[in-house]
Amino acid sequence: MKHKILVTGASGAFGRLTCIQLAANGHQVVGTMRSLQGKNEVTANELKSKGVALVEMDVTKEESVNSSVNSAIEIMGGLDTVFNNAGIGANGILECFTADDIQRMFDVNVFGVQRLMRAVLPHLRTQGKGTIIHTSSCIGRVTTPFLASYSASKYALESLAEGYRAELSGFGIESCIIEPGGFPTGFMSGMITPSDTERMNQYGKMATLPETSIQGYVAYVESIPEQRPERVAEAVTALVEIPFGKKPFRTVVDFSGLKQPIENYNKALNEATKAIYTANGVENLLTLNKN
User: Fold this and answer.
1) Residue 208 belongs to a domain
2) Which domain holds residue 139?
3) Number of domains into which the chain is organized
4) What is the pLDDT of residues 234-260, one digit of tens each?
5) The domain spanning residue 124 has which CATH number?
């Protein structure tokens, strides 16, 4: 079955490669990015040459999201799958991020997700069927030093996805989460850093550790042949093509040693979730309506 798919964050490695893979497999794809010009022009032209339609979308602006979703539906003559992929990272000592710094990231990673969901769900609920895939992270399951603010946004995304999974199941809308490990992409170099340099200076030598740590981590993942963003695109494409109602809720994509412990964590949480829902008499919300 060929799908009509909206992919946000198409200018990044995961989004770009996923758009290309999905289009190559015969799916209709509309990718979004904040601008099709400037630094994104080369990527935009590549995607267009691969059969991917593009619309401009700024997930931090509700009007832009609503307009872009309507354009995507018009271009494809419908919509059945959404890859909620736009996101930004942050690296630095947690205290040194101002509330505005963290809000900037949450505006994309969390509030941007909510804006998109509110834009697409009326259409999906009306047709009684759809698939939502969210890009989370392995560190949306466990927090590491200096990346805590980013992890917080992905923890929040995981919670939103959990809630939507239950509340949309009766409408025939399935929810999925992709949890990549760290991959050597431009995402790492584009992370937000703390703006409170005065506070950062109070940490002395520790102030240099976030940058040293991320550089070391990038070198590590670059040394792993399979730890490439293409693997994430392949995983998303494979997930899209699993028959409706058979998709796993969470899929971990990692070759650096995180996969097994995160999958163990997810399994334990899944069992706890079932027990809690059963105790509260709402276990039926974990069952997708396939009619």
Assistant:
1) no
2) 4-90+101-189+227-286
3) 1
4) 999 999 999 999 999 999 999 999 999
5) 3.40.50.720
Residue 206 falls within a domain, yes or no?
no
Of residues 11, 68, 153, 169, which has the active-site annotation?
11
CA 150 to chain centroid, in Å, comes to: 12
In a domain, 240, yes or no: yes
Answer yes or no: is 265 within a domain: yes
- For residue 52, the tally of other CB atoms under 10 A from its CB is 24
Please identify which of the residues 4, 149, 151, 154 carries the catalytic annotation. Answer: 154
For the stretch 183-194, pLDDT in tens is 999 888 889 999
pTM over 0.90: yes
List the catalytic residue out of 150, 155, 164, 217: 150
Residue 153 annotated among the catalytic residues of the structure: no
Give residue-wise pLDDT tens across range 87-102.
999 999 999 999 999 9
Q: What is the mean pLDDT of the chain?
A: 97
**Where residue 290 falls among pLDDT bands split at 50, 70, 90?**
confident
